[in-house]
Design goal:
The protein is mainly α and 207 residues long. The chain has 2 domains: 15-73, Homeodomain-like (Arc Repressor Mutant, subunit A); 80-201, Tetracycline Repressor, domain 2 (Orthogonal Bundle). The protein is built from 11 helices and no strands.
Length: 207
C-alpha cells in the first residue's frame, strides 16, 4: 500500500504541476497569447497546454472545449453553444424574431455588452484581432445557425443577419442614434425581426 497521503492522491486535476498557485489563470494567459498569435482557428488545445506548461487533459478539465477556453480567456459573458439552441429550436418561421430577441437581450445589458464591445474595438484596430473575432463568430455562432436552414446560400444568409445585427448594435448602443437608442426593446425587435426572417428564409435573387 502506498505511503502517499490519501488527500494528495484525490481531487487533483490531471496533469497539474505540483505547487502551481494558479493553474487556471496560467492556462488563460497562455490561451490569450495563442489566440492573439494564431487566431481562433489556428490555436489548439495542445498548443495552449504546451504554452502553459500543462497536459492538454488539464485544459479539458478546466474548460472542456476550445470555444469555452476562448470565452473564458476573452471574458465573454456566455458560450455561444449555450444560447444558439434557443434560436434554432422550433419553426424556422420564427427564427428571425428569436435571433433579434437574443441579440437585444445581450446588447441591452451593460454587463454582457461590454466584453463584446471590447472585442469589436480591438478588431477595428488590429488585423489579427479582426481575424480571431471573425473566425470565432463564424465557427461558434454562425455555422450552427446556418446548419439548420433549408434554403440555399445558408452561409450568406447568416452573414447578412450578422451584418444587420452588428450595425444595429453600433447604432443603438455605441453611437446611440436617436430615436433608435431610446426605442423600447420590443419596438426594435418588432422592426428588425422581419428583416432577419427575410434573410433567413426568403428567396434570394440570383446573379
Amino acid at each position: 500500500m502506498s505511503s502517499q497521503p490519501l488527500r494528495s492522491r484525490r481531487g487533483r486535476p490531471p496533469g497539474r504541476r505540483p505547487g502551481a498557485p494558479d493553474t487556471r489563470g496560467e492556462i488563460l494567459a497562455a490561451a490569450r497569447a495563442q489566440f492573439a498569435a494564431h487566431g481562433y482557428d489556428g490555436a489548439t488545445i495542445r498548443g495552449i497546454a504546451t504554452a502553459a506548461g500543462v497536459d492538454p487533459a488539464l485544459v479539458h478539465h478546466y474548460f472542456g472545449t476550445k470555444e469555452r477556453v476562448f470565452v473564458a480567456a476573452m471574458e465573454l459573458p456566455f458560450v455561444p453553444a449555450d444560447v444558439t439552441g434557443a434560436v434554432i429550436a422550433g419553426d424556422q418561421g420564427g427564427m428571425g424574431e428569436r435571433l433579434a430577441r437574443l441579440f437585444v437581450s445581450v446588447w441591452g445589458n451593460p454587463v454582457t455588452r461590454a466584453p463584446f464591445l471590447a472585442l469589436i474595438r480591438s478588431a477595428l484596430g488590429h488585423e489579427m484581432a479582426a481575424t480571431m473575432l471573425r473566425q470565432f463568430v463564424r465557427g461558434a455562432l454562425l455555422s450552427p445557425l446556418a446548419s439548420v436552414l433549408t434554403a440555399p446560400d445558408r452561409e450568406l444568409r447568416i452573414e447578412l443577419c450578422a451584418s444587420q445585427l452588428i450595425g444595429l448594435g453600433l447604432a443603438r448602443y455605441v453611437i446611440r442614434i436617436e430615436p433608435l437608442a431610446s426605442a423600447s426593446d420590443e419596438e426594435v425587435i418588432a422592426l428588425v425581426a422581419p428583416t432577419l426572417q427575410r434573410y433567413l428564409t426568403a428567396h434570394l435573387p440570383g446573379p
